[in-house]
Write a structure and sequence with these properties.
CATH class of chain A: Alpha Beta
Oligomer: heterodimer
CATH topology of chain A: Rossmann fold
Shape of chain B: globular
Strand order of the largest sheet of chain B: 10-12-9-13-11-14-15
Strand content of chain B: 15-25%
Shape of chain A: globular
Distance between the termini of chain A: 11 Å
Radius of gyration of chain B: 27 Å
Largest sheet of chain A: 9 strands, mixed
Number of helices of chain A: 7
Number of helices of chain B: 26
CATH topology of the largest domain in chain B: 60s Ribosomal Protein L30, Chain: A
Structural class of chain B: alpha+beta
Order of helices and strands of chain A: EHEHEHHEHEEEEHEEEH
Number of strands of chain A: 11
Helix content of chain B: 25-40%
Strand order of the largest sheet of chain A: 2-1-3-4-11-10-9-6-7
């Protein structure tokens, strides 16, 4: 079974359900509080996960303090982990942190155009079929979102370029937060680093869908998200 | 990353003074109480004087502040424990403690009938109910009214933060799994020039600040805010109500806790500052314009990440078996946390150990500051190294605050000087209050006001757009109601995830039992008939829980009261009547109270005199849903189903939303209903749920049957056709009462045709069907009363708050 390491900052709060979701998809998991994080921990892991929440409160730009702490703790080891074939996933606040860390295509996640926190379900569609995280999912599906700073912005033309070259692997099916080119998730050039604003860990069982009659799949879409990467790692 | 505790500022010396009281007469004592803002009465101050006469010395300021906090209404519920001489319609009666008579005795009776359900009530920070063989669920609801009136964001922020700590301090530390938030505000469209006092914040300012305060605490803590309610009424303009509640899960073996001599008391979490001084006594006095200027220090400042770290630490320490006792620092700060923990055994407290936010605090300030995010744990000294390691892991500060010793005295030291030394028994023995109350129940007036509007459809549209009924969606979307991934029945659901539900249902990790949460409050009913309000609130809460699939025999409730001036005999009389009604319904339903709270002095001195809130009861409850297949939403699921009604419509529109829109109609009587009949119906309903005979169910409440039907249709999956002559109703009921009456005890069921026989056998009546057209069509003996596309109704309901929030 592949092993997942979940890094937990003060204010990270989706770690438990993310670990539960990973276990449902046949990962072994380990939640590491950042105070106890050592670079050696990466050697045990096939997947490093930055879960959702509000690291350090996100009072300054989201993910900013977590970036500084991660750099301080891991230095270049996280990049080295990716270089030697490791996978990294950032969900919601984790996506913001990975963007801050520069592990994902350049850009920022800023306040939704509404200026508000937004908790709802969002229609999503895959852009291309290169991401192992999306491998087991259909072209269109939906997941819950819950964020105040989920609008992706890049320098002029960047967002469109990411859509064109497939790095913007996940797009919103509707404009929910003003994200440039509808970007909901990004991957790096290798496809092994992936960040997304929606919360796949919240839709593992079919019954957590808002519609009790939902039956588009045997299990919730989030299950197939984690299963896809588990399968990719098992190969 | 760990900031060493030693880096925090600390006090350098004790700062306290001795205050002579032994030679003061009653008038001078009362003057002293006012001068020091102790909120202690004349009788209380005399008791203080007697206490120090017996000690043979005068008190320090620290001791007076400790007594004021401990004896405050906020901490000791002295009005609920008072002896009240009550007169109802001219007949005298004596109530020997509202709490004992109408709350605790109800629970004790039910506990005797239902052993092994309630695992703890009224002793700990929250009440516990058995979930499964090894887990319990607990719930606590608090109010934070006065802080929210003068600083809405911080007031609500710390209101939620405080109740989350109550759960962390329940048993040896419960895990918070869901929150609920209930507000009473002035109408959003109140005109600024109509505010009759300087510096009062407009209801919109209160609304926005409060919602954001809740949002920013709950979302950051990662606790889903899944349930709530908002009432808008002019009587809440000056004194809004903010209720915050949190539910938790704990292993049953970790519920019992005890402080023993030799235990160390360690504090964990945030540092101590001058914020939140005298919050407990502040909340036990009325608000005035001066409050907006002078009482700012009584409002605390929240820091949810500090609390998240403390929570991670407490839960890890409990899992490691290192906690003997834990409680939160709420009102009264260390003085009440340590005071409570040492209330049996006594012990020494060392204030010089307390890390501060800022230097220069006086002794009493360190001891009673209500700075947020602090927990106090009793632990064995040998576990200190392990606890320090956990604190470092979760990046929270801990320090030794006190040690229990069996002396039965609360001894507080500050740099070697004794600043407080009180016998615990006397400290916790506040004098009993004696109060007067009266109530005269107005009789229903007849004849009825004739109601023949030009268009019933238009009336329905008006009600759907009323602030009492419109969708709370803009607010619900600001709360993360899905974090933790366990919210099965969401506050908004249906085909497009935006239709209203009766409450929420959450899964519990490691259990196949689920927890339903709901709440009910009907302040409008209480203005004329508080007894009926008490009954109706219990009914609505229980009914919502049953509707969602909870086993009716496994429901527990909480009572949270707010009222104006308890020294006003009529206002107190309304409270007494409300409490009686509530107790009557709780007994009939076998729904024990497991926790509760009361908030008094919710009135404001305006330019035109005092404005009190109406007596307001919030009943919040939780029920066990025994199988995920029992979870039932309130949204129609398909065309071709039968719509059935349980319960009966009786005449009377008093207190209804309809009455607020129709001159005079509200003067008619209030509806009548019988709890025994409702209870039997709920039990039969639950059997139907277990058989799979119910696709959806919705309670008939504010707005009546027509509004409830429309709400079921907002799922977007089907239309509705109902023949109102089939609605079970007393024969004198008018169309207005059938359409918009709010008789309690009623549920609308969506039933697949093949189950109709068993549903009818269970006492429900077929009133119509769901249709393929997205249309609401209500007829009465062949005459069309309501006829509208659901697409024309839904926006009125859905967008009603949008312009204001």
């Amino acid at each position: 079974m592949p092993h997942a390491l979940l890094i937990k900052f003060p204010g990270t709060n989706c770690d438990a359900e993310t670990a539960r979701a990973l276990e449902a998809a046949d990962f072994t998991t380990e939640i590491v509080p950042v105070a106890r994080l050592e670079p050696e921990a990466l050697d045990r892991a096939a997947l490093v996960v930055f879960s959702g929440g509000f690291s350090y409160g996100d009072y300054v730009m989201s993910g900013r303090i977590a970036r500084l702490v991660t750099r301080h703790k891991l230095g270049e080891q996280l990049q080295a982990f990716v270089n030697r074939g490791g996978h990294v996933l950032g969900i919601c606040n984790g996506f913001q942190i990975l963007t801050q860390l520069g592990l994902l295509p350049r850009g920022s996640l800023i306040h939704n155009t509404s200026g508000r926190f937004l908790c709802r379900w969002a229609p999503l569609r895959k852009n291309g079929d290169t991401s192992p995280f999306l491998k087991a999912l259909p072209d269109q599906f939906e997941l819950p979102v819950a964020h105040a700073e989920g609008r992706f912005v890049g320098e002029s033309g960047d967002a469109e370029q990411y859509v064109k070259d497939g790095r913007a692997a996940l797009l919103y099916g509707a404009d929910i937060n003003g994200s440039s080119a509808g970007i909901a998730g990004l991957q790096d050039a290798t496809g092994r680093v992936f960040g997304l604003m929606p919360h796949p860990e919240r839709f593992i069982a079919r019954q957590t869908h808002y519609d009790p009659d939902w039956q588009e799949a045997e299990r919730g879409w989030g299950y197939y998200f984690f299963k896809g990467v588990a399968d990719a790692l098992a190969v | 990353m760990q900031s060493a505790p030693s880096s925090a500022p600390r006090t350098e010396r004790a700062v306290f003074r001795t205050i002579p009281v032994r030679d003061l007469d009653a008038d001078r004592l009362l003057e002293l109480s006012k001068q020091m803002k102790l909120s202690l009465s004349r009788a209380d101050m005399e008791a203080v004087r007697d206490l120090f006469d017996a000690e043979g010395r005068d008190p320090t300021d620290v001791e007076l502040e400790v007594i004021a906090q401990t004896w405050s209404e906020h901490c000791k519920h002295r009005i609920f424990n008072a002896r009240i001489r009550h007169t109802l319609d001219g007949a005298d009666e004596e109530v020997d403690s509202l709490f004992k008579t109408y709350v605790r005795s109800v629970t004790e009776k039910i506990m005797a009938e239902k052993p092994d359900f309630v695992l703890g009530a009224f002793v700990d920070n929250a009440g516990f109910v058995k979930l499964d063989a090894d887990k319990a669920v607990c719930l606590k609801v608090e109010t934070h009214n006065h802080p929210s009136a003068i600083e809405p964001y911080a007031g609500a922020n710390t209101g939620l933060g405080g109740v989350i700590r109550d759960i962390l301090g329940a048993g040896k530390g419960a895990k918070p799994v869901a929150s609920l938030d209930v507000f009473c505000f002035g109408p959003p469209d109140t005109r600024q020039e109509d505010l009759r006092a300087k510096d009062v914040i407009h209801p919109l300012g209160i609304l926005r600040g409060v919602v954001r305060g809740v949002r920013d605490y709950g979302n950051r803590m990662g606790i889903p805010t899944v349930n709530g309610a908002i009432q808008f009424d002019e009587s809440f303009i000056y004194n809004p109500l903010v209720f915050c509640g949190t539910a938790g899960i704990i292993p049953i073996q970790d519920i019992a806790k005890e402080v023993k001599p030799g235990h160390l008391l360690i504090a964990a979490g945030g540092r101590t500052g001058k914020d939140g001084l005298k919050g407990a006594t502040f909340s036990s006095a009325e608000l005035t314009t001066d409050s907006h200027e002078e009482d700012q220090t009584a409002v605390q400042i929240g820091n949810p990440i500090e609390e998240k770290k403390a929570a991670d630490f407490v839960l890890a320490a409990r899992a490691a078996g290192l906690i003997e006792f834990v409680t939160d620092c709420g009102a009264g700060g260390f003085s009440s946390a340590a005071g409570e923990m040492l209330s049996e055994v006594g012990g020494d407290v060392w204030l010089e150990n307390v890390p501060l936010k800022e230097p220069g605090l006086e002794s009493w300030q360190v001891f009673i500051s209500e700075s947020q995010e602090r927990m106090v744990l009793a632990v064995e000294e040998k576990h200190l190294p392990q606890l320090q390691e956990l604190a470092d892991t979760w990046q929270t500060e801990i320090f030794t605050l006190a040690k229990a010793d069996g002396s039965k005295r609360l001894k507080v030291w500050h740099h070697g000087e004794a600043v407080c030394d009180l016998p615990v028994e006397k400290l916790h023995g506040a004098p009993r209050r004696e109060l007067r109350a009266h109530w005269r129940q107005t009789v229903a007036r007849n004849p009825k006001v004739a109601m023949r509007p030009e268009s019933w459809t238009q009336v329905l549209k008006t009600l759907l757009a009323d602030f009492a009924i419109v969708s709370r969606e803009p607010i619900i979307r600001e709360y993360d109601h899905e974090v933790q991934g366990n919210t099965v029945l969401k506050p908004l659901a249906g085909a497009s995830g935006d239709a209203p539900q009766d409450g929420s249902v959450i899964r519990v990790d490691g259990s196949d039992q689920l927890v339903a949460l709901a709440c009910a409050l009907l302040p409008e009913w209480g203005k004329n008939d508080p007894h009926a309000m008490g009954r109706a609130c219990v009914d609505e809460c229980v009914r919502q829980l049953v509707a969602m699939g909870a086993n009716p025999r496994r429901i527990a409730i909480l009572d949270n009261f707010c009222m104006g001036n308890p020294d006003n005999e009529r206002e107190l009389g309304a409270l007494v009547e409300c409490t009686k009604g509530m107790a009557q319904a709780a007994l009939a339903y076998g729904a024990p109270f497991v926790s509760g709270k009361d908030s008094f002095y919710n009135y404001f001195i305006t330019e035109d005199g005092p404005v009190s809130i109406p007596v307001t009861l919030l009943v919040s409850g939780f029920g066990i849903v025994e199988d995920a297949r029992h979870v039932t939403g309130a949204s129609l699921r398909r065309a071709g189903s039968k719509l059935c009604l349980l319960g009966r419509c009786t005449p009377g529109l008093r207190g209804s939303v309809f009455a607020r829109h129709s001159q005079g109609a509200g003067l008619d009587g209030a509806p009548t209903w019988d709890e025994a009949e409702s209870w039997a119906a709920y039990e039969r309903y639950h059997e139907l749920v277990k058989q799979g005979a119910v696709l959806a169910a919705h309670d008939v409440s504010e707005g009546g049957l027509a509004v409830a039907l429309a709400e079921m249709g907002f799922s977007g999956k089907a239309g509705i056709k109902v023949e109102l002559e089939n609605v079970p109703a007393d024969k004198e009921c008018t169309p207005a009462e059938i359409l918009f009456g709010e008789t309690p005890g009623r549920l609308i069921l969506e039933v697949p045709p093949e189950h109709v026989d068993s549903v009818v056998a269970a006492g429900a009546v077929v009133i119509g069907e769901s249709t393929g057209e997205r249309w609401l069509h209500l007829t009465h003996r062949g005459t069309t009363l309501v006829d509208s596309a659901l697409a024309d109704l839904k926006p009125l309901w859905q967008n009603g708050l949008t312009p204001y929030y």
